[in-house]
Specification:
It is a single chain. By secondary structure, the chain is of the alpha/beta class. The chain has two domains: 332 residues, Rossmann fold; 85 residues, Immunoglobulins (Immunoglobulin-like, Sandwich). The protein contains eight helices and 20 strands. The strands form five sheets. The protein has a nine-stranded mixed sheet, sandwiched between helices. A four-stranded antiparallel sheet has the order 6-5-8-9, with no helix packed on it. A three-stranded mixed sheet has the order 7-4-10, with no helix packed on it. Strand 14, helix 6 and strand 15 form a beta-alpha-beta unit. The protein starts with 6 loop residues before the first helix and ends with a strand.
Amino acid sequence: MRHKLFGLGGLLVALALLSACGASTQGNTDDGSYSEGSSGGVSPEPSAPPRSDGDTAGAPVPGSAGPSTGGTSEPGGGGSNTPAPGQLTAGDWDDNLNFSFFQKYLTEAPQGLPAHPSADRVVITVRDEEGRPVPNAHVIVGDAAGKRLEAPTASDGRLLFLPAQDGAQANGAFSVTVAPPPGQSGVPVTTSVEGTAWNLTLPGARGILPTELDVAFVVDATGSMGDEINYLKAEIQNIVDSVRSTYPDVSARFALVMYRDEGDEYVVRPFDFTSDVGLFRQRLSEQVANGGGDYPEAMERGLGAIHQLSWRTGNTARLTFLVADAPTHTQHYQAFLREAHRARLSGIKVYPVAASGVADEAEYLMRLAAQLTLGRYIFLTNDSGIGGEHAEPHIPCYQVQLLKHLLVRAIGSELAGRRLPASGTDILRTVGNPAQDGSCTRADGTVTYL
């Protein structure tokens, strides 16, 4: 596995919010974890950036011994000192907010990547009679041939319908049925719709922001992750404390999915949701990075494992941080997209977090997962001075901020039902000269948005 450098460590920072961890064996264990064996063939793979392979958990990365302050050596962390938290830097991007730009990006994708027909995207928004977004409203879209989509709305009341990908006929006529969220009274509404923005009002329902939070972190745990897990340990308490202090009335739970690759000790190792952060931190400390060997990893298996977790279905904000620096194997591209679609249908937003090794193929797949689920694409930057080079994403405009601030703000946005922008004091640098309102005017006169 390529050295992910300290970049993924920042990503793993997010894991702080996660649930229990620990050693596992084949089959389910008492703590909710399991380990899978593996098999599988090999097919041509995407080109990989320069890297160092091998099963060397915790091996030092030449030229990447980023700043470290104090700290102690902890078990399962590769044997190095725990670095100080709050060093890694990142930016983010919303392909649904910049949908025309996204369509152009799709046409320029490297050869061999899966097609993503999404130009017919419909944004469904459900509000109550006072205009407030209704989270977790039950939406069914049908046409003359039957049901095409059934899924809950997000905390901002939105849901994406993709007619071509959802099996609908071109230029078909659609009807939508919307039912109140779990635990609310009201009468379902059925109406005919057209266009690409369906704004629906649900009488009798109330737009109540989520009182529950389920966050899953899906993390590549191949051989280069030893030092990054140490970074994660340093960041965990900082992020958890921020979520606790900012949202003391929210019932928060965290889950963790570690994944490697076919032929390794395990392919996926999930740990179900827990509200016991101490238990999570203890189990996380027992995890080590190992395995891998080639560039692609079993990312589709890691994302798919979130569907084994016990997500709540009430007034809940549900999101997944997918921490990775490599794509899935070529033969599993479509499997990865199927898992992203399952997340959309389950009302789970995917926020990919791209580390230093991410190249074109991984960026493409991760951005598709974010777009399908109404998440945002997050990527580490070079500003921290930690690790190797982080490739510039194929976007024209972004703000650089501390990763820990960005991840906490992403969670806060899901609880607030709207995007919480970065404050001026959090912005370290900008790319694309964004205006105060978040707009970025490109050289050709087109405008994108943060």
